[in-house]
Amino acid sequence: NLQGKTALVTGSTSGIGLGLAAALAAAGARVILNGFGDVESAISHINRLGIAPGYHAADLSDPEQIGELMHYVEWEFGGADILVNNAGIQHVAKVEDFPVQKWDAILAVNLSSVFHTSRLALPGMRERGWGRIINVASVHGLVASQEKAAYVAAKHGVIGLTKTIALETARTPITCNAICPGWVLTPLVQQQIDQRIAAGVEPQQARNALLAEKQPSQEFVTPEQLGELALFLCSDAARQVRGAAWNMDGGWLAQ
Ligand code: NAD
């Protein structure tokens, strides 16, 4: 039960972030959403769970806007007890063709934002004597795939940062862990399926090929399943889970 706790989930207007926000709200947490796109339907999704969510439109590639987001959470909600660093972007290209701006943007959103939200959330967690930081990394935080240089580098970085924060908070009731999903069918992955469709592959076949290459279960992981994992990491039972990179990946990393 997370009643009385405040949870900030970055990048929570769609996909995994919205699923994690919904799981936390269903467990009674006050939830703050962030992200772009169809903000209204994300808000009404959480409203239907009986929680009126906060929302802030900070662009997480900008440290200054992250500062404003964390101020908002502090002033309006008394600070984040649960920080879920979920916002992430992808770009697929070979290293020698990788646009430099895309590299910078992916490092900023997928890695540096985790540093900024964490450094700004930790003092309040220490003061209140409880905290959970959950970083949505990826299997690509532990192994690589071709043509995902920036994403793989950023996600490996997130796992390193997770371990450092776990050590610095080891003697406190604050834990920091990473979760490492395999394929989840969200807009981020649909975009990669669409690229195959554009190259002439049938939609169903494009989807199946994507799974068959990497994910032995040949089923997508769901945001709901990841939500249950996040709830476990928030529980008292998970108090000694510290610095973990916990995969939920249909067997991807078992190969
Ligand atoms: P998504 O595209 O559905 O959602 C991304 C969210 O981040 C959206 O709410 C978007 O508005 C927000 N966002 C993007 N750029 C932002 C910015 N600059 N500032 C603030 N918000 C921003 O993607 P998803 O698949 O749900 O991905 C969520 C996280 O899960 C990412 O970190 C991703 O790397 C990770 N992940 C996804 C998969 C997968 O298979 N989908 C697998 C492993 C890890």
UniProtKB/TrEMBL annotation:
GO BP term, pick one: monocarboxylic acid metabolic process
Family named by the database record: Belongs to the short-chain dehydrogenases/reductases (SDR) family.
Family annotation (PROSITE patterns): ADH_SHORT (PS00061)
GO molecular function annotations of the record: 3-hydroxybutyrate dehydrogenase activity
PANTHER family (UniProt xref): 3-OXOACYL-(ACYL-CARRIER-PROTEIN) REDUCTASE, 3-OXOACYL-[ACYL-CARRIER-PROTEIN] REDUCTASE FABG
One of the Pfam families matching this protein, by short name: adh_short
Protein name per UniProt: 3-hydroxybutyrate dehydrogenase
Source species: Chania multitudinisentens RB-25
InterPro entries hit by this protein: 3-OHbutyrate_DH, NAD(P)-bd_dom_sf, Sc_DH/Rdtase_CS, SDR, SDR_fam
